[in-house]
Amino acid sequence: MGFIMSIPQWLPDARFYQIFPDRFHRCEGYGMLTEGHVPLDPWDAEPTRENFLGGNIAGITEKLDYIHDLGCNALYLNPIFSAATNHRYDANDYFK
After folding, report:
1. pLDDT value at position 29?
2. What pLDDT was estimated at residue 30?
3. Would you say 73 and 14 are in contact if contact means Cβ atoms under 8 Å apart?
């Protein structure tokens, strides 16, 4: 017999907003995701595959009202771990 998992009660009514943290919003002075690793480009720089803009968790928190006003009540974050790329799917430390 396989593992049976119940669906959380809130899930069927969830409206997700997916966030690519590096590009979403940067709150200055709060735990830059790339702090000490790579230089950050100015926030208004054109995004490229190689650059880091420095969006962070504090920036997401700052925009929760905006996301709620869009009708979303759940978040899906792209990876947030320390990594050599801005998309962070290549995490080099799952504790940073």
Report:
1. 73
2. 63
3. yes
Average pLDDT in the 74-83 region? 92
- Neighbouring CB atoms inside 10 A of 53's CB total 24
More confident: 29 or 68? 68
For residues 53 and 47, give the distance between their C-alpha atoms in angstroms, rounded to a whole number: 8
Show Cβ contacts of residue 88 under 8 Å, excluding neighbours closer than 6 positions. 21, 22, 33, 78, 79, 80, 81, 82
φ, ψ of residue 91 in degrees (nearest 5):
-50, 135
- Name residue 75's beta-bridge partners: 17
**Residue count (the chain):** 96
Instruction: Supply the DSSP symbol for 11.
Output: G
pTM for this entry: 0.80
Report whether 30 contacts 75 (CB < 8 A). Answer: no
Tokens of 91: 């995490």
